[in-house]
Write a structure and sequence with these properties.
With 286 residues, the chain is of the alpha/beta class. The chain has one domain: Rossmann fold (3-Layer(aba) Sandwich). It is 41% helix and 17% strand. The chain has 11 helices and 7 strands. It has helices spanning 10-23, 38-51, 54-59, 78-85, 97-109, 146-156, 173-186, 189-193, 196-203, 220-229, 259-272, and strands at 68-72, 89-94, 115-118, 131-137, 157-168, 233-240, 275-281. Mean pLDDT is 94; it is low at 1-6.
Length: 286
């Protein structure tokens, strides 16, 4: 298997991504049942809601009635389904054919209407100014050229359209305590991998075939700069998501968390969470 350090070009990185999510479609580890069935997809939707209830607010499913919405890197169709249920004219695009197949099956199983197409985030197969909103949830940190993907998102947005982007946060407790301290130093993976890029590639994403997809992390400043450079205005970036299982220090307390503790964890997540949420708007046409 390839590591990020041996990716000779963007295409090899993309092949590694397709290999990863063909074998293990995004979220499959938490869903029981037959992929493509109603029961399986309902399990997937419920697992996502339990894992990250804040995503419904950040992605604004309920705000999209009547809007044309594109989800870049749609995976098995979770966000596309949520947009469709919210009344949006929803479209999903994904690089991995297996994801496209499953997303279409899941949308059909729920009796929803949405368009799912195969395509590359760095060269979206849509005309300019086609969508009112574009989201990309946990995807662009795997693409070799995120600036190109952001420019493409900006291109397909209509005047005053909005982008909502979620990527991994370098300034998070999970990154520094789990990925760097535990995996990198205590488990000595930095010795074998020679870089944090290798550590992240080897362990962040669940894989049954030891796949090694490209995994990057970004600071708030870096994500903000990329959105601005892609042509977005009104850019805002903030962190979300912290759970007791996210670090080796808090993990032992996971079974005794109370309702009040969940509010504390949410506050921690808003400054040191594992995800960054970036939003920006395309300029208003003259």
């Amino acid at each position: 298997m390839a590591t990020p350090m041996s990716f000779s070009d963007a295409e090899s990185a993309k092949r590694a991504a397709v290999e990863q999510w063909t074998a293990d479609p995004c979220g499959a580890v938490v869903a029981e049942g037959e992929p493509g069935s109603v029961a399986y997809f309902q399990n997937l939707l419920e697992a996502r809601a339990a894992y990250a209830p804040w995503m419904a607010e950040e992605l604004g499913y309920a705000e999209t009635r009547g809007l044309r919405v594109l989800d870049v890197g749609c995976g098995q169709g979770i966000d596309v389904a949520r947009y469709a249920l919210g009344g949006a004219e929803a479209t999903g695009v994904d690089l991995t054919p297996r994801h496209v197949q499953l997303a279409r099956a899941h949308i059909g199983a729920l009796g929803l209407t949405a368009l799912i197409v195969e395509g590359d985030a760095e060269c979206l197969p849509f005309e300019a100014a086609s969508f009112d909103r574009v989201s990309s949830n946990g995807v662009l940190h795997h693409t070799p050229d995120m600036p190109a993907a952001l420019r493409e998102i900006r291109r397909v947005l209509r005047s005053a359209g909005e982008a909502r982007i979620i990527v991994y946060n370098k300034n998070s407790l999970h990154y520094w305590l789990t990925q760097v301290m535990l995996e990198g130093f205590l488990r000595r993976k930095l010795l074998s991998e020679r870089s944090m890029a290798g550590v992240l590639s080897a362990g962040v994403e669940y894989s049954t075939i030891s796949a090694r997809p490209l995994v990057r992390v970004y600071t708030s400043r870096e994500l903000r700069a990329q959105l601005v450079n892609a042509g977005f205005g009104e850019v805002e970036v903030h962190a979300r998501h912290f759970k007791l299982v996210d670090t080796p220090i808090t993990h032992p307390f996971r079974r005794i968390a109370r309702a009040n503790d969940l509010r504390v964890l949410d506050r921690i997540g808003r400054f040191a969470g594992w995800y960054l949420v970036g939003t920006g708007k395309s300029p208003v046409a003259d």
